[in-house]
Request: fold
Amino acid sequence: TTRAVVRGTGHYLPERVIPNSWFESKVDTTDEWIRTRTGIERRHFAAEGQTTSDLAIRAARAALENAGIAADQIDTIIVATSTPDLTFPAVATMVQAGLGMKHGFAFDVQAVCAGFVYALANADAMIRAGQAKRVLVIGAETFSRIMDWTDRGTCVLFGDGAGALVLEAAEGQGSSADRGILSSDLNSDGTYRDLLYVDGGVSTTGTAGYLRMQGNLVFRHAVEKLAETAHRALERAGLTADQVDWLVPHQANLRIISATAQKMGLPMEKVVLTVADHGNTSAASIPLALSTAAAEGRLTEGDVIVTEAIGGGLSWGSVVLRW
Ligand code: ACO
Reply:
């Protein structure tokens, strides 16, 4: 069987770091509240004029370099984002041009915070189907552009950034010892639209709009649904939670992450955490966490990694892979 194996990782975070204290003069909040309720200590914000595709291109270059692969060897670019530069064309085609590519095909995936998991599952399906050999999968966001700076319940949570993986087709032996993406589990339920959405768009207001969230309700769904989807993906891979080396969760809130790890029976030593430094970067948070952990030398070949995420839609899912 053909498997999608991770050949390289890369990420980019904008230079501007915003500590929690920055919000104290803007809304009625404290560093203490943000730390204890979310685990976030700081986040990066893109500079004026710096776009999602700018971040994505930097992350992509870093991943290609890490993989030792040139852009002309890439067949497909998939960008997970909800904050594209423009309504169209896709950020992925901007990345394609930015990398100097004229061949292949590129498109965006929009599943908000679950976007990277959706993009990985898409890339895996294309590689298995023989439609692509090498896929650049990127999560890139500039959520700072859709913040309502008067809403303390949301503006303190999000950050900007991008992460990327290079996936390559590899022929496995068909045993679970093989590397690569082993399984995925995707879900959505559009009846939860009002829990988390942006109140603008092309066919409604004609504006970009601002993020609106019923945080405590999203929180409850997250705690319930994330362990479930991870469980289903593991089951599909023929694995159990005790065989997991790393949980690489979407980095929205430390309390959600801890509750999910606990439900899965995983100690926090097995969880990759970047939420303190990055905040919630939506579709970028999982590849940012993977790339950060890889750069720190924490991931070893053969490690079983579970990723999971939930976001607007609601949309949620999990991908299991062997590093
Ligand atoms: N500073 C101080 N107080 C605050 C702040 C703040 N920044 N934000 C909210 N509060 C207050 C609320 O107003 C409320 O006050 P009240 O009781 O007087 O009304 C109180 O804190 C408790 O509010 P809750 O919303 O119940 O607080 P909770 O403990 O749930 O934490 C949070 C809020 C951090 C937003 C949490 O619900 C959360 O993380 N939710 C999930 C977010 C998430 O994961 N989103 C999904 C991914 S994002 C995506 O897909 C784009």
The radius of gyration is 18 Å. Residues 29, 33-34, 37-38, 112-113, 152-153, 156, 196, 215-216, 218-219, 222, 252-253, 256, 280, 282, 311-312 surround acetyl coenzyme *A (CB under 6 Å). The mean pLDDT is 96. Residues 2-171 form a domain with the Peroxisomal Thiolase; Chain A, domain 1 fold (CATH 3.40.47.10).
